[in-house]
Amino acid sequence: MECSSVVDGNVEEVPSKKVIKFNPPLYKQRYQFVKNLVEQHQPKKVADLGCGDVCLLAILKYQKCIEELVGVDINEGRLKWNGSRLSPCVGDHLDPRELDLAITLYHGSVLEKDCRLLGFDLAACIELIEHFDSEDLAKFPEVVFGYMSPAMIVISTPNSEFNSLFPCAVFRDSDHKFEWSRMQFQTWALDVASRYNYSVEFTGVGEPPTGAEDVGYCTQIGVFRKKAEAAEMAVLEHHGEHVYEVVYTTSYPSLQQINYRRRVVIYLVYREVSRLRRKYQVSLRQDELEAEFVASGNQTGKFTSGLPVPVLTEDDKAMEMAPQPFCIEDKFYVPLQRIIAYPRLGHLCGNVEKLREFLGDMIELNCDGSAVKVDLNDCSDF
Ligand code: SAM
């Protein structure tokens, strides 16, 4: 890209500068940074302040630890247009999350106090503060650090020192009210942190090219953590005002919801019983073939059935001590004690009584209710 500057009314050609391309793109590196923080610190409640097109929220909704995800933006149209990106999909119903997840998008300004934003573990302000004029920038710390007071806050903003590598750059976006050098951002951040009892660490994403390392990262980032004494003193004013307008809300199927847990338990029991029955049928057939082999009087050859050798899963190996499946006439039985010994089913049910309750009338049990009962020769796979 060519770049020119005006000197005394004459257009002066200046050396062209290469367009800098980031791989992955810079915005993805910012989202990845927040995702890494979530993986590292396992927050339950996460807010994205100035969430825009909800791209970050769409990534974070897959994080297993998060139970409440909130986005706030002043641009109502963007929220309404993009809200449905956060809806559960078919896969979320078929393979529900372990924990509940509720997502809410609020239309409102992060410069206003709304008590539904209290008590969060992490608030992300990605490429937000540079859109504030000086008056709004002055209000921001009091609302976000002072009032919302989440345990952790991550703020990203352009590093103006990097702009010298861009062709013709003044500001990177026409709506930016400022872009700060590292010194400016760090001075502001350290002052805010000390006023509201947070610590802050600085980093960034978007590595500078070789030879230009002095300019620092393209996006500078501050990670603020509430100090222990401030966290202990925090009093949550849950009875405050609701200022924001809810524009979108959804909740995800989870194993905390009894209907989903029951469905998953039934599916896993069907699958396991079916697998054990198949294994048993193969071993019966193998015995038959071996008996025929011996009866044929073949003294030389070694017996091989040619049937597939059942693969032992890790669970099978761990469960050698569990009660074994058994067969009476043409019925095949799998003891509930065995089923509950499978780690995943044990985790989902807790005990045999609960397992029995989940199976209800969906799966037949023997007369004393201690084992699942199926036809040995039923070939239908569950
Ligand atoms: N954080 C998003 C991202 O990284 O993709 C969007 C960043 S975009 C550059 C800035 C966003 O901040 C816009 O969606 C804008 O509407 C929002 N915004 C600006 N001022 C705001 C305010 N006072 N309260 C809430 N959102 C605001």
Automatic annotation (TrEMBL):
Top-level lineage group: Eukaryota
GO BP, sorted A to Z: piRNA processing; RNA methylation; siRNA processing
Catalytic activity: small RNA 3'-end nucleotide + S-adenosyl-L-methionine = small RNA 3'-end 2'-O-methylnucleotide + S-adenosyl-L-homocysteine + H(+)
Assigned GO CC terms: cytoplasm; nucleus
Keyword Hydrolase: no
GO molecular function: metal ion binding; RNA binding; small RNA 2'-O-methyltransferase activity
SUPFAM superfamilies, A to Z: S-adenosyl-L-methionine-dependent methyltransferases (SSF53335)
Cofactor dependency: Mg(2+)
Enzyme Commission number(s): 2.1.1.386
Keywords of this entry: Magnesium, Metal-binding, Methyltransferase, RNA-binding, RNA-mediated gene silencing, S-adenosyl-L-methionine, Transferase
Enzyme category, top tier: transferase
Family: Belongs to the methyltransferase superfamily. HEN1 family.
Function: Methyltransferase that adds a 2'-O-methyl group at the 3'-end of piRNAs, a class of 24 to 30 nucleotide RNAs that are generated by a Dicer-independent mechanism and are primarily derived from transposons and other repeated sequence elements. This probably protects the 3'-end of piRNAs from uridylation activity and subsequent degradation. Stabilization of piRNAs is essential for gametogenesis.
Record protein name field: Small RNA 2'-O-methyltransferase
Native source species: Capra hircus
Gene expressing this chain: HENMT1
